[in-house]
């Protein structure tokens, strides 16, 4: 650098590049952008490239033509049903989680004593993951486990949840409620309390304040939360194997990927299944993002002043 | 005394509104807290049951196991087939490597993204957001197939590479607000006093970002501990992290003894809770899931 600098003014072509450099710098392109290269290269090579690679190998199956994997998927009811099974699991899980998380997040929106403890408690399942949650569920929901002892004690009878649709459902809700709650507390917390107070001085009751003031303001955040939850729920995997029926009612989209990659070592078919999952995920994200752009997008926190 | 006791309701408004705090006794309130209570009970019960089971000689139902023993832990820790100790070591090796690479590549990137605007910036942002938004299962197979093709399948470097994909964007996400907190004036002042770029980063910005780097590192470790799918698809028996080993034992149809699986799960829980507690001493818990929306 030090040696290059004095040489520059002497040469005419260098001057041209220098002014080009200056013009680029005006538009925000300069050497500082080089700092981005390692990160972009890593994400490009390990995330974008595998996606392209996966799509490519999904079109070169071991047997049959280019579309054989996809044809197999959509003509074999056992495989194509996975989309329906996934929707049938993911939507109720997201809805149930929202029913638990939304009212609680609304009540926890202001600071109060013990908020940290509650936040921590709900962070536990996020941190530990669904493998441990499923393993614990097999113990407490076993036929004479704690849950059935309690339910039997109050006369609600034994429930059989394990190794069925409902096992994966419970595991899914346990994993997704905390995610939703923590996001929603953030979104509710971003709404200036003065807006609610203003509505109250104008005579709005609690119900009106929620539905007419807070709810519309939190709606974009709610849609974001819901998209993240759905995306997670569409990719439920360990709990579908550990506490569900991976060959029947919880034969969700992730199971064919797992079977193709880990049991048949057919990476071409596994990539085709994963590509289908990506398309479904992007469809969900796209739909909800489109919905979100139609909602109120102004400031929810008070202005400066 | 009597006057001070009766005075407040009169000031507060119509009688009755004060004695029954509307916040606590509405129907929605009762429903909300009942649901939340059930949720917390199941959650805590689940962890308690796992811990109890890991110490049980056998537990075929009922409130408590028949007897208690510590032998499952001894077996889980040392058993060559389950070896919690070696899986734990592997997990930390993966975690530390991922942290070092992510911080080295991520902090400069976070700096540029926080300070500069340039054409194509939004494209870079989307590129960095996708690995966090999409669940690992959507790209784990393709990535593992690629890693097997280049000959790193079932090896530790392969597992490290695949764990980088969500970790690096996560480090950038966590670091960006920390960079924004460093005022540009500080940099300009350092430049005025004659600092070159190396001095600027080594002496001025670097030290100011150190708390952020520490937070990002420990949070990355938390995430590597729990990252199941990515490691599951790439790892071989010798390069499994602990959570993958727990899943392997739990899903094994031949049947590992349930208390043994519980003991492995408890080992996993205990270690990740220690890391988690460490993480919380550095960051606000909500930052783990979302960026603070308040500026």
Which two chains share the most extensive interface? Answer: A-B, 92 and 94 residues
Structural class of the helices, strands and pairings of chain A? mainly alpha
CATH class of the domain at 86-239 in chain B: Mainly Alpha
Overall radius of gyration of chain B: 26 Å
- Kindly report the name of the CATH homologous superfamily of the domain at 86-239 in chain B: MetI-like
* Strand and helix order of chain A: HHHHHHHHHHHHH
Provide the low-confidence segments of chain B as ranges: 1-20, 288-295
Q: What portion of residues of chain B is helical?
A: over 70%
CATH architecture of the domain at 86-239 in chain B: Orthogonal Bundle
Give Rg of chain A in angstroms: 26 Å
Mean pLDDT across the residues of chain B is 83
What would you call the shape of chain A?
flat
Major sheet characteristics of chain A:
none
GO biological process, one term (chain B): transmembrane transport
Keywords (chain B): Cell inner membrane, Cell membrane, Membrane, Transmembrane, Transmembrane helix, Transport
Subcellular location (chain B): Cell inner membrane; Cell membrane
InterPro entries (chain B): MetI-like, MetI-like_sf
Please name the defining characteristics of this protein.
heterodimer, A: 305 residues, mainly alpha, 72% helix, disordered N terminus, B: 295 residues, MetI-like fold, 13 helices, disordered C terminus
Topology:
The complex is a heterodimer of chains A (about 300) and B (about 300).
Chain A: H1 4-7, H2 12-26, H3 37-58, H4 68-75, H5 77-107, H6 115-140, H7 146-153, H8 165-189, H9 193-201, H10 206-234, H11 238-242, H12 254-263, H13 267-293
Chain B: H1 2-12, H2 27-54, H3 71-78, H4 84-115, H5 121-133, H6 137-149, H7 156-181, H8 184-192, H9 197-226, H10 229-234, H11 242-251, H12 258-280, H13 286-289
Helix pairs in contact in B: 2-12, 3-12, 4-7, 4-9, 5-7, 7-9, 8-9, 9-12, 11-12
GO biological process, one term (chain B): transmembrane transport
Keywords (chain B): Cell inner membrane, Cell membrane, Membrane, Transmembrane, Transmembrane helix, Transport
Pfam families (chain B): BPD_transp_1
């Amino acid at each position: 650098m030090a040696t290059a600098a004095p040489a520059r003014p002497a040469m005419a072509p260098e001057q041209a590049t220098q002014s080009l450099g200056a013009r680029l710098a005006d538009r925000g392109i300069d050497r500082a952008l080089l700092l981005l290269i390692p990160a972009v290269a890593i994400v490009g090579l390990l995330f974008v490239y595998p996606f392209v690679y996966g799509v490519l190998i999904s079109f070169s199956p071991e047997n049959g033509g280019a579309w054989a994997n996809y044809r197999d998927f959509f003509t074999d009811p056992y495989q194509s049903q996975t989309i329906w099974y996934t929707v049938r699991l993911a939507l109720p899980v997201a809805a149930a989680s929202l029913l638990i998380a939304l009212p609680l997040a609304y009540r926890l929106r202001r600071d109060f004593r013990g908020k940290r403890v509650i936040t921590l408690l709900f962070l536990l399942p996020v941190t530990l993951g669904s493998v441990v949650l499923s393993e614990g569920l097999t113990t407490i929901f076993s036929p004479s486990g704690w849950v059935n002892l309690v339910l039997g004690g109050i006369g609600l009878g034994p429930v059989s949840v394990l190794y069925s649709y409902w096992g994966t459902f419970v595991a899914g809700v346990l994993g997704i409620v905390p995610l939703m709650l923590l996001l929603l507390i953030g979104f509710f917390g971003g709404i200036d309390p003065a807006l609610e107070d203003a509505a109250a001085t104008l005579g709005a009751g609690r119900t009106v304040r929620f539905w007419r003031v807070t709810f519309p303001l939190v709606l974009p955040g709610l849609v974001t939360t819901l998209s993240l939850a759905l995306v997670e729920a569409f990719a439920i995997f360990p709990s579908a194997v550990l506490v569900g029926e991976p060959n029947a009612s919880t034969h969700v989209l992730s199971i064919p990927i797992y079977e193709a990659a880990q049991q048949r070592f057919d990476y071409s078919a596994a990539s085709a299944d994963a590509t289908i999952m990506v398309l479904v995920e992007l469809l969900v994200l796209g739909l909800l993002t489109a919905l979100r752009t139609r909602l109120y997008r102004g400031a929810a926190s008070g202005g400066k002043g | 005394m009597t006057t001070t006791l009766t005075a407040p309701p009169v000031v507060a408004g119509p009688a009755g509104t004060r004695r029954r705090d509307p916040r606590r006794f509405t129907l929605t309130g009762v429903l909300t807290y009942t649901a939340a209570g059930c949720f917390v009970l199941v959650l805590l019960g689940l962890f308690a049951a796992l811990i109890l089971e890991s110490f049980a000689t056998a537990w075929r139902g009922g409130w408590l196991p028949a007897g208690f023993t510590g032998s499952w832990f001894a077996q889980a820790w040392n058993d060559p087939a389950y070896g919690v100790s070696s899986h734990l070591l592997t997990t930390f090796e993966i975690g530390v490597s991922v942290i070092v690479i992510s911080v080295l590549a991520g902090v400069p990137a976070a700096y540029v993204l926080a300070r500069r605007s340039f054409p194509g910036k939004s494209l870079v942002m989307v590129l960095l957001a996708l690995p966090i938004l999409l669940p690992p299962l959507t790209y784990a197979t393709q990535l593992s197939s690629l890693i097997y093709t280049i000959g790193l399948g079932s090896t530790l470097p392969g597992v490290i590479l695949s764990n980088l994909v969500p970790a690096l964007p996560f480090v950038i996400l966590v670091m960006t607000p920390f960079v924004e907190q460093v005022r540009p004036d500080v940099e300009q002042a350092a430049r005025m006093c004659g600092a070159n770029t190396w001095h600027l980063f080594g002496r001025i910005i670097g030290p100011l970002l150190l708390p952020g780097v520490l937070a990002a590192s420990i949070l990355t470790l938390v995430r590597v501990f729990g990252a199941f799918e990515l490691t599951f698809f790439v790892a071989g028996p010798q390069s499994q992290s602990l959570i993958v080993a727990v899943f392997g034992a739990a899903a094994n149809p031949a049947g590992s003894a349930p208390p043994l699986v519980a003991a492995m799960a408890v080992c996993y829980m205990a270690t990740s809770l220690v890391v988690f507690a460490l993480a919380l001493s550095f960051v606000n818990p909500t930052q783990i899931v979302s960026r603070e929306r308040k500026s």
